[in-house]
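pinned: reference chain
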Amino acid sequence: MSDPENGLRRPEESSYKPVDHTFSHSQLHHDAKPNIQPYVKLTFYFKKRPDISYEAFHKHWQTVHADLAVGSKAFAAYNTRYVQVRSPPFCATINNKHCLLTNNGWKYHLYPEDKKKAASFEGFELLDFDGSSEIQVKSFEDAKKFFESEEYVDSMRKDEGNWLARPVYMMVGYDNLIYGKAMEGGTDGIMPRDLQH
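pinned: its structure tokens
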């Protein structure tokens, strides 16, 4: 069944059997519509080249590769957001769990010691990648135009050989904003003031 409001294909309603639950927030009720944001998110997972250090991998990624991306006309034409968020250097000297919880989750620069700490979280399987990044575009068509652009093919894709190992894994989807302020054009999720019981 299609949802004409946001163009998503949804499973048949009969496939979901609601559990008995008293909701604290009506926005999350079984019958509530999702708070789909007005962009498509592409998330990439990758590993460093085996012959370079983690430091070289992260340094090249956050400087040269990022500059090639945002410096291109194709990037400006088709992308609406590309953010790098890395664990701050002081995370090594304080409770790393705090750093992980305050991270915005847009782009991760992971070191082996961070992976070991995260692997200790009970009930989770750690994805074994050295980095992850996200971009936002207005449509799938814009993403396709960007990745097929001459600038991407001639500079960014060629640069990837300097720091990452193929394959690069990708996940594509829409944000259903549950909590926090929306970006321009979107609808806010539940806000901190809504959590006051």
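why pinned: The radius of gyration is 19 Å. Residues 96 and 114 are 8 Å apart (CA to CA).
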